[in-house]
């Protein structure tokens, strides 16, 4: 070796290209991060802008408190959003009824009862369920769940709230199961041992110690799952129908906010018509609901985080 | 003197069967271990143990790392069974009944044989709920009775004065030493017969350690205490009898005075004089 290692290091350090890369890298990375933030702002801005245009034509109180959504009635279209919101809530309600008990049950089983081997096999399978395209779920609802339910409830219409509700529930179940299982697994074993040492049964440890300790993570998973259920589109478009009604049954055809947007987008509403602007107003309404849910989830996981 | 001591730290009222035994000079055995072997998978962790542990005494279990002292103590409340590959032969009799017998319910055993762990492990709940947890799961719902149990247990663990004004704060807001005494109080709340302590002071500072040691001295009047420690001074300070474990065997088990001043076995002498370990 003719040169000392230190002199080689010094030569390498003085290279210009290295210094330039070091300066450029943070800028490039910042741009990558900025892109998603800018896109979000762009979407929100478009939504607000077009929604504002909509409300110059339709009174905001008629929109918020109206119980009839009849945009296609030629003479006197009505834009009361409540039927669409109700349709969305019906589906979400049933989805929660399906997903929370089964998702939590699966989480408790995987975290507290299953052997390591079982968990390693079952959890990835559960997560595959989350990766099934929603259009497949939609067909599953329409061609399998609905006919099956009609055997039990003869009055059930071909398009209804029940069947897509159940399938949306199945769709968000892995999310609740997987995130809740993460929250429960991160409760330290020493705490379980403390409870077992007092003569608790396994079930008591799971329900009275682990579940409360993981509550923030569990609630956050449920809120995020609800947010996904509210925004779910394909399943409700295929199996829910396109009849916005302000009735509280689950057997008749409904229309959700998302399904309405699909209906108009795929139809031939002309640019600049009131119907065209209405999808932005509905989209903005939807955005407010999902945003509120996401903020709630963040608040809950921060506020109720257990220290251990 | 005794009265003054009692005023300072009121004791939890325990079952009369035991207080009778205290006044009686003849002590009964809480645990009798006969030809007990334990394996973790292929690893033979405890080898043919025979040891009788008397009630209302502090029994220290000492030995170098990996000698099986913690394993033995965890076998006494069957916590060792949490390791899936564990296998045992022989008997450990708790008050005359083999705890590894087929119809011995582990939950029942653990209400009689409480445990304090190496690292303080309070539940992420309020101090009150930590103490009330045990009584609650065993069916005590009455608020007034629970209040009483909580106060008595916290006094029993000499931490009532520290926490009485903040019973509804999270237990994790306390210092490590205080947390460990909360864990002791949590254990006292179900009025066990035996308290197992697995290196209870190894995560604590010297002052907290001293407090726990003093507490052990007070508790032994009503409880039988078996304490694992890697600190030989601690064993000498607080225990009545000491068992020295080495490589899964009991080398020597005798009065603590004798173990530390005049051990019978050469290996015991080497260990306590610091030649190995």
Q: What structural category arises from helix and sheet content of chain A?
A: mainly alpha
Q: Rough shape of chain A?
A: globular
* Number of H- or I-type helical stretches of chain A: 13
What portion of residues of chain B belong to β-strands? 15-25%
Question: How would you explain this protein's 3D organization?
Answer:
- The complex is a heterodimer of chains A (308) and B (277).
- Chain A has helices spanning 5-13, 16-57, 60-65, 82-113, 116-129, 134-152, 162-185, 189-196, 202-213, 215-231, 234-239, 257-266, 274-303; strands at 69-70, 78-79.
- Chain A has 13 helices and 2 strands, in the order H-H-H-E-E-H-H-H-H-H-H-H-H-H-H.
- Chain A is mostly helical.
- In chain A, helix 2 packs across helix 13, helix 10 (215-231) packs antiparallel against helix 13 (274-303) and helix 12 (257-266) packs antiparallel against helix 13 (274-303).
- In chain A, strands 1-2 form a two-stranded antiparallel ribbon.
- In chain A, a hairpin with a 7-residue loop joins strand 1 (69-70) and strand 2 (78-79).
- With 277 residues, chain B is an alpha/beta fold.
- Helix content of chain B is 38%, strand content 24%.
- Chain B contains 12 helices and 10 strands.
- A 6-stranded mixed beta sheet of chain B has the order 6-7-8-3-9-10, with helices on both faces. Chain B has a 4-stranded antiparallel beta sheet with strand order 2-1-4-5, covered by helices on one side.
- The termini of chain B are far apart.
- The interface between A and B is medium-sized, with 21 and 29 residues.
